[in-house]
Fold this protein.
Amino acid sequence: MTKRTIAALVVALATTQATTQATTQAQVKMEMAYDRPAQYFEESLPIGNGKLGALVYGGVDDNTIYLNDITLWTGKPVDRQLDANAHEWIPKIRQALFSEDYQLADSLQLHVQGPNSQFFQPLATLHIDHLNAGATTAYRRWLSLDSAIVADCYTLADGSTVRREYFASAPDRLIVISISGTNMSLRLRLTAQTPHKARASLATPNTAAITCPPTPRLAAGQVTMTGHAMGDPQQSIHYCTMLKATTDGAVEAADSTVTIEGASHATIYIVSQTSFNGFDRHPVSQGAAYLDNANTDMWHTENLTYQQLRQRHTDDYRSFYSRLSLRLGAEDQQPRRTTDEMLKAYSGFLDGTTLTPAEARYLETLYFQYGRYLLISASRTPGVPANLQGLWTPHLWSPWRGNYTVNINLEENYWPAFNTNLAEMAQPLDDFIQALATNGAFTAKSYYGIGRGWCSSHNSDIWAMTNPVGEKNEKPEWANWNLGGAWLVNTLWERFLYTQDRHYLEQVAWPLMKGAAQFCLDWLVDNPKAPGELITAPSTSPENEYKTPDGYHGMTCYGGTADLAIIRELLTNATAAATLCHDDPTPYRQALSRLHPYTVGHKGDLNEWYYDWDDWDPTHRHQSHLIGLYPGQHITLADSLLAKACEQTLIQKGDHTTGWSTGWRINLWARLHKAQQAYSIVRRLLTFVTPDAYDGPDKHRSGGTYPNLMDAHPPFQIDGNFGGTAGFCEMLMQSSCGVAADGLEASVTLLPALPQEWADGEVSGLRARGGYELSFAWSGGRVTRCTVTATTDSQLTLSYNGQRHKLRLKAGESRTL
């Protein structure tokens, strides 16, 4: 991030300080509460500082805590010379396509596939056993979204109590666990385990441990684990994880175990560093000094008390989280039910039990703020954005490799970054896109024969892999797709629209957007079926399949609508960005005017394919051809024909789909200003789903939400949480920003898709394109109060209650209407 960009974010933060103070008081306490320990991953509670994360299960006999580090992956930097001649197959594929031999085209696509991505890996597991607990009662476990602290407590048979707190601190780069007993003497055993080839080292007060040099010096009550991700140790990321316990009792370390005796309290510190040193640096020969870095982090704990660490953590976290508050409904109270009970009742899974309107609104608000909590907790490491699982996994081999899936899921992770006032959390994605552009220039040349610009494909990993995946034997419908970069750079343009930082646009966003646009200009070909038009060939619609009139079930085509939607959005934004940066917009404008247009099918839906073919699966989870409606902005309600076709597509898709797709559909319905349809999908997203390993008679698997409010694809994918949070914003406020004759002009609409169930409420701290922050209240579905604050000199059209207000504001000026 440039100094000027940082300065702009500081200014933006300054304008929210008054709002932050107000929102802390306005919003009822946001807390996820449970009356028993977690048995499954999907019941555990996550904490994270953007790099280190933990899944807290709770419990007494075995409190399991899975530890993660977002920089622990298999593999090493990509081979940029891989498949240097793969592009020679592109003309053959095009020839097959334009001869309408789709089966041949599908088979030839296998030659334009490279290796699959690397794996995100778990770090370790910590077990905390209470050795003298015996029978316990009154167990309670909770996560405070207001402070990013997990806690649990229980009572022993003699009436004594135990309380534990867990948090992951960004300022101090560590995880801290505090355990305290009342009227008792604690006996605890801490056991650290790792699924990798690792060595555990320990120390007594007078000895230092020796493992692979130069291992840090160890203190009493401290265990250090050194190891590496799965694979060749000379070609893998290495790590050093250190655990230290301080207490007023006796402490002893043996093997990978720490035992505490006769204590009234204990504090456990966990630090971890890896040798990851950037996407293009070898993790061994050019790796970071992970041993020294871990040792430094642990020594840092000597300088601060637990209460100081806790305060530094909460101050840091709240500086982001407290920028935005939301109240849905007229009542404002914290329910007494546990979160999983509320979720079951909300979904109709508890016979004879329903939620009051106040409880339902609380659960919905909790889900919204949980998405913001997860983004703050998972996305604060430069160059390493949140992955498919955020940064949390208990699995050695995570579903879908725990990678970056770039045909929707990585993009969806960042949909709530700007509108929910968390722009800083998108910075890791900015860095990652820059890395993709570097590697993607080689992919463009090797796989597609294009010497300008860059591209990225379906999957990526910490090494910013950009090649088409598939290992030369997997389905083209997802493996052969090269528009990931063209879609991702929309986030850069969005940052500019929300912040109005011209320096960022000129120095960061536009060069990357331009490279992606140049690739697209050269990837487009003249349409032999309609002279003068431009299309893509070969083309696929991510993970979907078509059915031709003669019965062929295929994947590869030409002129797919999803391709052209992404390119249309990019070229539209590139035209505006080039103009603002005093670059020549002509190539983008001209190509834009020649793109094959959208077409409406015989069922009234928006055609997904060049021809009016049916989908093999009409209810397919992907709706990539609707990108122009959302997250893009080039299909609007003003184009009634296309808007109606998008609506018909959503009707045909139905409401039953995976978690992340459900999150996307909330936004799509909201963009169409269909309030009750959008809210129906909100309800669908909050469908209770049992943990994957649960096999009881009431087992329920579908797209929806697990007991810990994590998104159920299933299995867990975090993008559904982020898509859902973004959907709430889209229902409450929509904004756009275009280039006008005298500068940028923004338009904001309040309550464009407000359902009847949310007839009353208020929100403070929403951000809008054009550089605005808005706080407003409503009653009976009508806005009763609105305050607009500008971060730059600007002009705005604000619409609500059927009226339009033209405003001109100076930077830092607020206007209450």
Notes: The chain has a mean pLDDT of 93. Residues 39-72+121-144+147-321 form a domain with the Beta-galactosidase; Chain A, domain 5 fold (CATH 2.70.98.50).
